[in-house]
């Protein structure tokens, strides 16, 4: 999702809250509580949703479980809090949650004005458009005069305005608060077009009864590098979150999976694998964790590729190809710094 447009005073309030809360030592708080508190979306197929048993599932959810496994040795020691586009930053800045893993775009203003630290890019995305086939259009350049469902308080609005202006087209915005509200209005024909991140469009379409009746147009009008984030002011906690994500990427590159991670730890001759899985070195200890923190994370949820394919891949209803999110060894952009 995109950036909230905030008054300067509110941005300053976020900054003050960020420093005071983060400085308290998040790792110690999480260990004392025995639970990781993680903010996720209110419901987005493939990314974060509750299953028939009321258990949270999804790509963003599994990242939180990986952090919990690394920090607490228990992937289920997570308290999930659903957050909207408007509430997510307040929840993180105030200390209500320890980490935000909610399809959130990494931007300059979120780093600088809101005082958040992004931990890496978990999904490379871009804003797109979805329409019903019955509308009879095949390109966003044919949407002149359309009514567009658009989430308020986000840069989705700005991207949309810029695109239509540049193309010499007009549109009528229909303001919505959540993805659920957007889907409902779109399906009820209150708007002709639904716009958000392309992955979010695919996730929404996967929930439709007649998904084949809807198409995602080819135009991508923005860069949306999505990833988890924490408050400024606690470098140790940021390092933990960052290197859990990196460990998931490195594990895919090295062929480490949830099923073989113990065997790899016992038998691999690769020095980086041995460091990553805690067989050699004191990497975990340097950030306040057990040296096998990455092993625990991978054993709990799998490597990056396993998590992607389980929740978003071409064998799921969301049906997303890896594309830019393939490992760099396969021509994609997912690339982690060396574990040394």
UniProtKB/TrEMBL annotation:
What gene is it encoded by? aapJ
Q: Which family does it belong to?
A: Belongs to the bacterial solute-binding protein 3 family.
Q: Which Gene3D superfamilies match?
A: Periplasmic binding protein-like II (3.40.190.10)
Task: Give the matching InterPro entries.
Answer: Bact_solute-bind_prot3, Solute-binding_3/MltF_N
> What's the domain of life for this entry?
Bacteria
Q: Which PANTHER family match?
A: AMINO ACID ABC TRANSPORTER PERMEASE, AMINO-ACID ABC TRANSPORTER-BINDING PROTEIN YHDW-RELATED
Give start and end of each Solute-binding protein family 3/N-terminal domain: 35-259
Keywords assigned: Signal, Transport
Q: What is this protein's name? A: General L-amino acid-binding periplasmic protein AapJ
What is one Gene Ontology biological process annotated in the Swiss-Prot or TrEMBL record? amino acid transport
- What SMART domains does its record include? PBPb
**Signal sequence, renumbered to the chain:** 1-24
């Amino acid at each position: 999702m995109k950036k909230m447009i905030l008054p300067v005073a509110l941005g300053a309030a976020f900054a003050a809250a960020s420093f005071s809360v983060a400085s308290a030592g998040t790792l110690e708080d999480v260990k004392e509580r025995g639970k990781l508190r993680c903010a996720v979306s209110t419901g987005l197929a493939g990314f974060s949703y509750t299953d028939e048993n009321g258990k949270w599932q999804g790509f963003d959810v599994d990242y939180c479980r990986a952090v919990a496994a690394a920090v607490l040795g228990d992937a289920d020691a997570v308290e999930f809090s659903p957050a909207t586009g408007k509430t997510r930053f307040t929840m993180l800045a105030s200390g209500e949650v320890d980490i935000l893993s909610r399809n959130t775009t990494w931007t300059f203003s979120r780093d600088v004005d809101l005082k958040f630290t992004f931990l890496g890019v978990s999904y490379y995305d871009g804003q797109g458009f979805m329409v019903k086939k019955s509308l009879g259009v095949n390109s966003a350049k044919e949407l002149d005069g359309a009514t567009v469902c658009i989430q308020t308080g986000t840069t989705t609005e700005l991207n949309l305005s810029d695109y239509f202006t540049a193309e010499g087209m007009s549109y009528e915005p229909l303001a919505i608060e959540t993805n659920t509200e957007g889907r409902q209005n779109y399906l009820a024909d209150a708007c002709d077009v639904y716009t958000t991140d392309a992955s979010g469009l695919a996730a929404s379409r996967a929930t439709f009864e007649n998904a084949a009746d809807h198409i995602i147009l080819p135009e991508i009008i923005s860069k949306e590098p999505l990833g988890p984030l924490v408050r400024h002011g606690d470098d140790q906690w940021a390092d933990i979150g960052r290197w859990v994500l990196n460990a998931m990427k490195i594990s895919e590159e090295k062929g480490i999976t949830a099923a073989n991670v113990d065997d790899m730890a016992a038998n691999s001759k690769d020095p980086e694998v041995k460091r990553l899985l805690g067989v050699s070195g004191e990497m975990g200890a340097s950030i306040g964790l057990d040296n096998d923190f990455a092993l625990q994370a991978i054993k709990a949820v799998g490597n990056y590729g396993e998590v992607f394919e389980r929740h978003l891949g071409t064998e799921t209803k969301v049906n997303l190809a890896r594309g830019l999110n393939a490992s760099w060894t396969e021509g994609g952009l997912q690339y982690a710094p060396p574990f040394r």
